[in-house]
């Protein structure tokens, strides 16, 4: 009797261990899924209407088109035969299991900061999703960029391998935010000037830049004259990151993608940590002197035409004083993203309109109509010049030629 | 995928809650669908009645299921028109459904039929194709799916009234060149591939001359059987 009982007890104990192991395992998978969201893997590794993480999404670059990889656990065409070590090598060192070099369009220059434990969790999650048998499509890169050895040069200049090192002089919250922004969030991939080699140098990190091929300007996250968030409240920053709209401004273009696929899923603590860090890195930069390429008489004519266009087409939503009805109809007065040196974004907003992303916090966003078909180049330049200089805004006028050039900017 | 389904379920709940809370502050835009689709109306008209641009289609009164399918197709890029592909890219399914229902529920009058620019013979050929098809060339009658009154059927078959000839030709052309596709089996792709340029001109011209019938609501699902299967019209 006694021995039977102990056998039964033993079996029970074994069962609970299995259950616990499974629990632990599913915890890891859930954490991996969360981290994969934070890394926005789906933005690149899932094709439109394609299966989750089966790759095949085209990424146009100045050097030709890259096609993303299948990262489902399919043994033939995905990463089903990889070990956690192999996966960490990709994330941390930018190399395939056989040591081959990975193109930096896969943001390993940021992911290198990810801890081994987080990398393993993402790997456990990727192993748990349905395998998809879909061969990787070969890249279509022009000579000489089709030679992977060239990546060595890029790596020497722009890649420094190494996990995130917390700054002991800063709070845990600040460090958590830094870890997410610099690592999985790969914010620097867009928010840094891109040079001819397609790289971001460490000293220019988060200084802003025009995204090649897409013709959107990703503003500096350090300068308060651009998207530096030094004088934003923490709540406005967390609203922007989690819902896509805020009392200070809204996201659009590529940033709408980031909020839609990634940032809206981050929990309140992580979002707040990012906000604290972003607010912290903003430098109180002295404003560079305003410089316009347009002669004075021409700009004042433009601006007076601009007011007419604005009152007729824009004031119903953005208000006669640019006050908007925040957060849904964003204010244009004292809105940094309009005053920046680069006028690409406000010109494109007027030409193409837009909707902020639909998010859990803002499931039915309000939209702005495109004006490309309704306004001439001159009228577009005029209204953008007006909103950049009215109500105390400190931007500069733009020319009809700049407006015209952006008519052909790609819309996807 | 699971998490996505969960997220969209959460959305439905949020949307429902949203609907109830009609609280409106002076400093907020009106909490209505009309205010939310202001981004669409310069091209489609305030009530979806269409505009003077012959390529911008009327949306009003079309079956909600049909409009929803189109919005999904534009969002994924399966149907191409870059200004719309871009606007819809990051909008969730329940919101697209709400937009579809909004325009389906509007009933501005149909425009008067357009005077036709083609000869009587061509119009007669168009009428023949639309109402009887051409069995010898494997062309089914358009009315066999779009309905005897050309008013369409719930949920997925659009009516063909109130559209202008250039728009109809452009859509048939888009199916032939693969820039518009519908859910598989894509029956319209099959129909369009059997039409010649001349057929397209004729049938588009005739359809655009049709006057509005008294009842132009799409008929109920299952009122008649389609001549062959269409992915966008579940049996």
UniProtKB/TrEMBL annotation, chain A:
Q: What does this protein need as cofactor?
A: heme c
Q: Tell me the InterPro entries matching this sequence.
A: Cyt_c-like_dom, Cyt_c-like_dom_sf, Cyt_C_IC, Cytochrome_c-type_DH, Membr-bd_ADH_cyt_c
Renumbered to this chain, the signal peptide range is 1-21
Protein origin, superkingdom: Bacteria
Which Pfam families does the UniProt entry name for this protein?
Answer: Cytochrom_C (PF00034)
Q: Return the Gene3D superfamilies for the record.
A: Cytochrome c-like domain
What is the name of the protein in this document? Cytochrome c
Q: Which organism is it from?
A: Bradyrhizobium campsiandrae
Provide the taxonomic classification: Bacteria, Pseudomonadati, Pseudomonadota, Alphaproteobacteria, Hyphomicrobiales
UniProtKB/TrEMBL annotation, chain B:
Secretion signal: which residues?
1-22
The reply to whether Iron-sulfur figures as a keyword in the UniProt entry is no
* Cytochrome c domain: residues covered: 121-211
Q: Which UniProt keywords apply?
A: Heme, Iron, Metal-binding, Signal
Name the PANTHER family for this protein: BLL4483 PROTEIN, CBB3-TYPE CYTOCHROME C OXIDASE SUBUNIT FIXP
- According to UniProt, the name of this protein is C-type cytochrome
Organism for this UniProt entry: Bradyrhizobium campsiandrae
Lineage from the top down? Bacteria, Pseudomonadati, Pseudomonadota, Alphaproteobacteria, Hyphomicrobiales
């Amino acid at each position: 009797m006694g021995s039977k009982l102990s056998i039964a007890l033993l079996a029970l104990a074994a069962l609970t261990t299995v259950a616990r192991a499974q629990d632990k395992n599913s915890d890891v998978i859930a954490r991996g899924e969360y981290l994969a969201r934070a890394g926005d893997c789906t933005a690149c590794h899932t094709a439109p209407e394609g299966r989750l993480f089966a790759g095949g999404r085209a990424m146009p670059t100045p050097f030709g088109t890259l096609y993303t990889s299948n990262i489902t656990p399919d043994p033939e065409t995905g990463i089903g035969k990889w070990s956690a070590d192999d996966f960490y090598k990709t994330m941390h060192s930018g190399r395939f299991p056989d040591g081959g070099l990975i193109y930096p369009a896969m943001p390993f220059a940021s992911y290198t900061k990810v801890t081994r434990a987080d990398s393993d969790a993402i790997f456990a999650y990727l192993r748990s999703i349905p395998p998809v048998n879909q061969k990787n499509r070969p890249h279509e890169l022009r000579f000489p960029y089709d030679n992977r050895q060239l990546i060595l040069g890029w790596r020497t200049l722009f890649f420094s391998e190494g996990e995130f090192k917390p700054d002991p002089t800063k709070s845990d919250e600040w460090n958590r935010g830094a870890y997410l922004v610099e690592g999985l969030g790969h914010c620097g991939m867009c928010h840094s000037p891109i040079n001819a080699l397609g790289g971001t140098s460490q000293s220019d990190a988060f200084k802003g830049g025009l995204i090649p091929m897409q013709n959107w300007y990703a503003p500096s996250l350090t300068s308060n004259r651009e998207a530096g968030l030094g004088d934003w409240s923490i709540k406005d920053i967390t609203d922007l990151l989690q819902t896509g709209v805020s009392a200070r401004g809204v996201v659009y273009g590529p940033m709408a993608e980031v909020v839609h696929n990634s940032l809206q899923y981050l929990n309140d603590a992580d979002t707040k940590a990012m906000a604290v860090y972003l607010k912290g890195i903003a430098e109180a930069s002295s404003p560079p002197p305003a410089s316009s390429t347009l002669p004075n008489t021409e700009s004042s004519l433009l601006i007076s035409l601009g007011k007419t266009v604005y009152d007729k087409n824009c004031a119903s939503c953005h208000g006669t004083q640019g006050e908007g009805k925040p957060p849904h109809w964003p204010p244009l007065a004292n809105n940094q993203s309009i005053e920046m040196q680069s006028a690409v974004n406000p010109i494109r907003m007027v030409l193409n309109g837009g909707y902020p992303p639909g998010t859990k916090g803002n499931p039915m966003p309000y939209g702005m109509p495109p004006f490309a078909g309704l306004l001439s180049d001159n009228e577009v330049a005029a209204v953008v010049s007006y909103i950049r200089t009215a109500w105390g805004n400190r931007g500069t006028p733009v020319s009809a030629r700049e407006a015209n050039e952006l008519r052909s900017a790609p819309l996807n | 995928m699971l998490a996505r389904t969960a997220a969209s379920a959460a959305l439905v709940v949020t949307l429902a809650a949203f609907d109830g809370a009609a609280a409106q502050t002076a400093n907020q835009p009106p909490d209505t669908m009309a205010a939310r689709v202001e981004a669409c109306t310069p091209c489609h008209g305030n009530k979806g009645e269409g505009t003077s641009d012959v390529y911008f289609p009327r949306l009003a009164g079309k079956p909600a299921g049909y409009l929803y399918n189109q919005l999904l197709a534009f969002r994924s890029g399966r149907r191409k028109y870059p200004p719309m592909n871009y606007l819809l890219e990051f909008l969730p399914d329940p919101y697209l459904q709400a937009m579809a229902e909004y325009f389906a529920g509007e009933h501005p009058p149909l425009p008067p039929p357009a005077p036709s620019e083609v000869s009587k013979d061509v119009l007669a050929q168009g009428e023949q194709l639309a109402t009887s098809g051409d069995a010898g060339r494997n062309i089914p009658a358009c009315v066999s799916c779009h309905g005897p009154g050309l008013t369409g059927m719930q949920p997925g078959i659009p009516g063909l009234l109130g559209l202008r000839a250039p728009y109809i030709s452009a859509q048939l052309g888009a199916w032939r060149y693969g820039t518009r596709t519908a859910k598989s089996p894509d029956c319209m792709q099959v129909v369009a591939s059997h039409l010649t340029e001349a057929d397209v001109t004729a049938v588009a011209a005739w359809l655009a001359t049709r006057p509005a019938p008294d009842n132009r609501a799409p008929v109920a699902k299952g009122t008649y059987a389609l001549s062959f299967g269409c992915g966008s019209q579940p049996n």
